[in-house]
Specification:
Elements (H helix, E strand, L loop, with lengths): L2 H19 L1 H15 L4 E3 L5 E3 L15 H14 L4 E4 L5 H21 L1 H15 L1 E9 L5 E4 L5 E3 L2 E7 L4 E3 L12 E9 H8 L8 E9 L4 E2 L2 E2 L2 E9 L2 E9 L9 E6 L2 E6 L14 E5 L12 H28 L2 E2 L7 H7 L17 E2 L9 H16 L3 H4 L10 H14 L1 H25 L4 E6 L5 E6 L8 E4 L9 H13 L12 H11 L10 H17 L12 H15 L6 H29 L1
Antiparallel strand pairs: 1-2, 3-22, 4-7, 4-17, 5-6, 8-9, 9-14, 10-13, 11-12, 14-15, 15-16, 18-19, 20-21
């Protein structure tokens, strides 16, 4: 056996061992998905398969009253709406680092819009809420981006770009299931089905197709429903993928033998790739291109726990109560007759039943058929049903305020409503915090990939504060910080309504007015931005325009271009911007000639500002 064949066998054996170790988790995930889509009479057999119960009697009520689906949908919606915008912290207080941080934030915003990161996050949250865990995969695709040239064969050469994928937990196999954090895992295998033609295109090797099972939704008109009808539900079924093969990607952390880590890709019986980890996506090191998101923590477990695990017993009990309740109603309405043998035509009675006005003829001397009275039931169906509905809310953390609109809330004060909303968010704190950390990790890895691969200058459209659009060219050298955090002004812990209420209180107390008691244009625009109405501000913010003009003059000096003072300049703003630039860039980008030019320019502004102040004093006299 060659070294290559030995490595392939090692990876496949490692994968099979990890797959068997977490088989019980996979079965629970499949059961959760079935309950989510409505197949709620399913269970896990001792052999590790999903089976469904059938009716035991033709009259048996066996309907599904799905409360798990709206609970999960509400949690996903709440988590998605609680995600604030990300920003980048500058590496230092220097002007260049601050501009670089602003550029990095614009890059993240541009990538988020291009790949529709919001939708990816919702897909990931769906997996996380149903199965307990989900993963983001952040990679660099050389075939993406704008075309920059053509090779000798005439094929397009593109600049490459970042891609983010939501990966289900079914594809992730860690080497240690008892490790809680992704950073503590030494090795991860991602197993996913890929079309053999795609493998041929990517790696240039022909792989034989395999028998691969996959999950899909299927309609099931089984032995469910009630008396006289069948129910239609969805279920998770296994299908076979044709023309596909399982690709195993094993990621190993850097070790003494492999300082840059190791990536081994295997498909079928062939080795597709074996080398170091491709991305400098860690903190100065190469690491896994994944970020983990969970619903709830489980101590001593790599994968999180889904709230569906806890809801399944309640859902089974709720279905049983509702169905037994309907069976009792059926017996009360349709009646059960006690008939003496031979006293009536039982065949006719069984077919026609007791229709209104029916003449029931019975044999003389026999007992009259009588209705069997239903026994009085001590169990109160309604109270048990309400108790189970309360358990749904207690276990899931989803309250009435999240899902319903009750008239009782209209008479409550704003403070009381705010406290209720905060309590709802508190019960989802674990899922929201995990999602935030995953998004931050995704943002950091995106910037690090651009820092590694964005060699050629790229064009980025930047929107100005007054609605203007600027074209900006950047490359890897422009990214000096990857410290991604959430913007405090858009913190997910505060809803839009809460921010509006707080801002109105500040306005009423006069805390946002200047020393002259006036409400400036810049503060007006900032308030509209915080309220979510930034696009309503069509007026031009002169201060912002003067600040941007001063910054453009700073860049012109660095390019040895002449600058001049204009009569319409706001001199104090220009003095502040130029002075800050000199102090931060004097030892880095400015030579002596450029420094003298900028200092002379500042003196001109000071001179004109003094003349302007003197003229205003004369007019006041």
């Amino acid at each position: 056996m060659t070294k290559t064949q030995s490595l392939v066998e090692e990876v496949r054996a490692d994968y099979n061992q990890r797959r068997l170790a977490r088989l019980s988790l996979e079965m629970q995930w499949q059961l959760n998905i079935n309950f989510m889509v409505g197949n709620q009479y399913s269970y896990i057999t001792q052999n590790g398969a999903i089976r469904e119960d059938d009716k035991q009697y033709f009259w048996q009520e066996k309907e599904v009253f799905n409360h798990i689906a709206p609970i999960i949908e509400t949690r996903i919606s709440k988590i998605s709406s609680s995600m604030p915008k990300v920003t980048v912290v500058p590496a230092s207080a220097d002007e260049s680092d601050m501009e670089s941080a602003k550029l990095s934030k614009e890059i993240l915003d541009s990538v988020s819009n291009r790949i529709n990161l919001t939708n990816i996050q919702k897909v990931a949250s769906t997996w996380s809420e149903i199965c307990g865990s989900c993963f983001y995969k952040i990679v660099w695709n050389n075939a993406s981006g704008k075309m920059v040239a053509k090779d000798a064969s005439g094929a397009d050469i593109r600049e490459g770009d970042v891609e983010v994928q939501a990966v289900s937990p079914f594809e992730i196999f860690p080497d240690n299931l008892s490790t809680e954090n992704l950073d503590d895992v030494n090795s991860i295998i991602q197993a996913h089905a890929v079309d053999v033609d795609e493998i041929k295109r990517l790696y240039g090797k022909t792989i034989a197709a395999e028998d691969i099972s996959a999950f899909t939704l299927d309609s099931n008109i089984g032995n469910l429903g009630g008396l006289g009808y069948n129910a239609h539900i969805n279920k998770v079924s296994n299908i076979k993928l044709d023309h596909h093969c399982v690709v195993l990607e094993r990621y190993n952390r850097p070790t003494k033998e492999h300082p840059n880590g190791q990536l081994t890709i295997v498909a079928g019986d062939k080795l597709l790739f074996d080398g170091e980890l491709p991305y400098l996506n860690g903190d100065q090191v190469r690491t896994f291109p994944f970020a983990k998101q969970i619903s709830n923590y489980m101590p001593g477990s790599f994968f999180g726990v889904s709230v569906v695990d806890r809801l399944i017993p309640i859902q089974r009990a709720y279905n049983a109560v509702r169905n037994r309740k309907h069976e009792y109603f059926n017996r009360a309405v349709m009646n059960v007759l006690a008939v003496e043998d031979g006293s009536v035509d039982t065949d006719s009675l069984e077919i026609e039943g007791l229709s209104p006005g029916k003449v029931l003829v019975y044999r003389q001397g026999s007992h009259i058929p009588e209705v069997v009275q239903n026994p009085s039931i001590n169990i109160n169906f309604d109270s048990e049903e309400e108790r189970l509905l309360g358990e749904f809310k207690t276990v899931s953390g989803v309250s009435d305020m999240m899902t319903d609109s009750y008239s009782q809330y209209t008479s409550m004060s704003g403070v009381a409503l705010q406290l209720l909303a905060e309590q709802d968010l508190t019960r989802l704190a674990t899922a929201i915090d995990s999602t935030k950390q995953a998004i931050i990790s995704v943002g950091k890895q995106i910037l690090r990939l651009y820092k590694q691969f964005a060699v050629l200058p790229r064009m980025l459209k930047l929107s100005g504060d007054n609605g203007s659009v600027k074209m900006y060219y950047w490359d890897q050298n422009e990214i000096t910080s990857d410290d991604v955090v959430f913007d405090a002004s858009t913190d997910g812990g505060e809803s839009l309504g809460q921010r509006r209420s707080m801002l109105m209180d500040l306005l009423n107390k006069g805390l946002l007015y200047d020393k002259n008691g006036e409400f400036s244009q810049s503060m007006r625009k900032r308030c509209l931005d915080l309220l979510g109405f930034g696009m309503w501000e069509d007026g031009v913010d002169l201060n912002s325009l003067h600040i941007n003009h001063a910054k453009e003059e700073n860049l012109s000096v660095c390019k040895n271009k002449q600058i001049s003072v204009m009569p319409i300049d706001q001199h104090q703003i220009h003095i502040d911007e130029h002075t800050a630039f000199v102090l931060s860039e004097m030892d880095k980008r400015l030579n002596q000639q450029q420094l003298n030019l900028l200092l002379s320019h500042i003196e001109q502004h000071k001179k004109l500002l003094a003349e302007q102040n003197k003229a205003e004093e004369t007019n006041n006299l």
